[in-house]
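Marked as duplicate of an earlier ticket. Keeping the data here for the record.
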Amino acid sequence: MTRFIIRRLMFVLLTVFLSSVIIFVATQVLPGDMTTMILGRYATEQAKDNLREQLGLNRPAIVQYGSWLSHYVRGDWGHSLTTGNEPIRPLVLERLWNSLKLAAVAWIILVPVGIFLGLMAALRRNRWLDQTISITALASIGLPEFVIGLVLIQLFAIKLGWFPSQSSVEPDTNFFRALPYLILPGITVAFTGIAHILRMTRSATVDVLQSDYVRTAYLKGLPPRKVLFTHVLRNSLAPTVTVVAVGTGWMIGGLIVTESVFAYPGIGRLLLFSIQRRDIQLVQATTLLIVAIYCVLNLLADIIYAYLNPRIRYK
């Protein structure tokens, strides 16, 4: 198991390193001039040259990359010139904490509902309940987040008045005070993700139910509840772990649409803001952090999967 974890950890470090190279190159080829975006189109060439020298943009690209990555690893993420020279690291971590709170609400909705519906569909496969759940899941996958969000706002915020239509909360608001503002965006984020977990759980559970050891357990006279929780769930939920980890990573980094619809101050909205303002250092810091979180979640998924399926440890 230790060797398995070390191999996966080395793979994560390699992935983050290659991603940092891609992020740096991508930000260098963005259209437009960074100094013009910061100083305005009426800035003089002398002012632009001074800013380039201040930011180190006149150095070779490989030198810029090495300096950026070394400072990033040490925790010095630079300053955002579009937010009044504010330090980037506390700003990004504050927005990340906001997104984590939203992801937690979505996760609480997403995982239990997705697994429960997947199990119900598998246990009633090829019946009307299975067909209804499957059709509804397929229909939900095609709905964009902004459509789901607008429908929820219209129904639960405007007509029923149960929840606020916007999720603009103060940065220091604790989780429980912010909870009413997180319900609608949390449901929006969870809506499409439920379908993926549901379908994976159903498929894996159907395969396990048709296996020889489950049939043997039934033939031995074991109660259906014991067979389900002892023999079926441990094996059928192993593939679902990966889907949950990927979905959680997406919830952290892919919340741009949902956070924009509900005006929620999360890391996705911050990334969109930095791209629109061409704040290169803020784009780099935010994107690399999202990649690192995504990789760590996949590492945890691999470890849990190996624990549930010991054969994976020796591959």
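See parent ticket for discussion. The chain has a mean pLDDT of 78.
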